[in-house]
Amino acid sequence: MDCDTNFKVTMSIKKEADGVPVFFKVDGNRFKKEKTIKLMVDTPYRIDISFKPTQTVTRAVIAGEEVETAERVHDSTASAYSSRLHMEGTPPSPKGHRDDLPVTVHLKGGLTLQMSLQVKYYKAGDSQHCDWGSTFHCVEYDCETHTDAGIVAILKETFR
User: Fold this and answer.
1) What is the C-alpha separation between 51 and 55, in angstroms, rounded?
2) How far is 34 from 26, CA to CA, in rounded Å?
3) Stated pTM of the model
4) pLDDT of residue 126
5) In angstroms, how far is CA 71 from the centroid of its own chain?
6) Over the Cα atoms of the chain, what is R_g?
7) Are 141 and 121 in contact (CB under 8 A)?
8) Residue 108 backbone dihedrals phi, psi, to 5 degrees
9) Residues of the chain whose pLDDT is less than 50?
10) Please, which residues have CB within 8 angstroms of residue 96's CB and are 6 or more apart in sequence?
């Protein structure tokens, strides 16, 4: 499978109402992934995804639900999109449990990028547990396309 193009994806999550970033904690090897992002249920979030060089998003699915994407930037060097992360009705994660938050982005040219964040859902208003740890600015993915297979492979994931 030959690589066609390399690009970088940056994804951030902020509280929609005030733009405040969320937090994450390092869990080590206790769960599937080393880092867990903390989210409050029944709280709207904004998820921003940017691409360098430019990629065109045709469709996005977050947690199994198709979401509307708003194009924020699109020029010759970069593109950026925003979506609303729907948390209404999501139950809090049981103690000692982590959930996957799958994010699938379909790109122009028939390519599919699949990312997954490990999250813990806290009760609405539980700022004692949800609002501490390291500030989650973004996660960066180094990617390469494989147009013959219609996929985007993630080569490296970096939390910032």
Assistant:
1) 6
2) 6
3) 0.93
4) 85
5) 16
6) 16
7) no
8) -55, 140
9) none
10) none
Alpha-carbon 54 to chain mean position: 18
Identify the CA nearest to 16 among candidates 61, 54, 51, 47: 47
Provide the token pair at 112.
């599919």
Are 56 and 49 a contacting pair, CB within 8 Å? no
Tokens representing 130 are 């949800």
4, two tokens: 């066609």
Residue 44 pLDDT: 92
Domains of the chain as residue ranges with CATH: 6-159 (2.60.40.10)
Residue with tokens 């979506």: 83
Task: Give the span between the Cα atoms of 128 and 43, in whole angstroms.
Answer: 15
Q: How many CA atoms lie within 13 A of 104 on its CB side?
A: 11
| Pair 62, 45: CB distance under 8 Å | no
Residue-wise pLDDT tens digits, 74-113 = 999 999 999 999 788 899 999 999 999 999 999 999 999 9
Distances 142 to 7, 8, 29 between C-alpha atoms, Å: 6, 5, 23
